[in-house]
Amino acid sequence: MGPLQNFLRDSADGQLLPWNRQVAAAERFGVTLARVEEAALEQGILPARYQRNRNAMTVGDQLTLFRSSVAVIGCGGLGGYVVEELARLGVGRIVVIDPDVFEEHNLNRQLFSTPANLETAKVEAALKRIGEINPAVTLVPIQAAFSPENGADLLRGCQVAVDALDSIKVRLELADVCTSMNIPFVHGAIAGWFGHVATQFPGDDTLQTIYRSWESGKGVEQTLGNPSFTPAVIASLEVAEACKLLLGQGTPLRGRQLIIDLFSMEMQIIDIVESNKEVL
After folding, report:
1. 51-57: long-range contacts, CB 8 A cutoff, minimum separation 24
2. What is this structure's pTM?
């Protein structure tokens, strides 16, 4: 056991490592906070920030999350909540892809948008925010539009992709790239009081089935708008799906679509894909 590991063991309060001792370890041994977190988890010591996760997942699960990489495509209404929740969950590497800057109409619902951030790149605001709330997480900001041409490069090294887009065309392209790269893909969409979530595994045609009647243009959100609460709900469900995929636990929404009506407070799950494939 090396000096860093000994320091962490001696610094732990029971099996919990306080944040101030993580910072002290990074400064004393000249390593990143990410390295300190990984070293602690490797010894079965849980950073104290995750102690409320303990009844839902093990320290080993937390280490798996820390060693995982998730791509979030879109950093607006859905994406801001997805990125923040992944970081607070303890996913160690988050690749955030979005070409846009914040505009005034984003202020009603987009988590990282503030008056001070208007005209700021969304991915740069995400980088700053995650650096403030969980500096042990590595956030990779990519200010670019996702496309079939750059998709493989953008998703390389990621275990899961999360859809936070507002374009059906690009969503379908993302689903195709994920299939070609053997990456499961969590889809979410919102419009007004309504939203839905589904998970597509490589080889499935979930998105093609959901949008089989689509011909062109953006989705119905352009007509119904988006209040502040809808993206928060759907993004949280997407993060729950991503967490299950990373840990290989629970029952994902494979071949199923979860439909949420917040106006009537009704939810239903419908079968949308027949699949005989093994769950990854």
Report:
1. 51/16, 53/89, 53/90, 57/247
2. 0.93
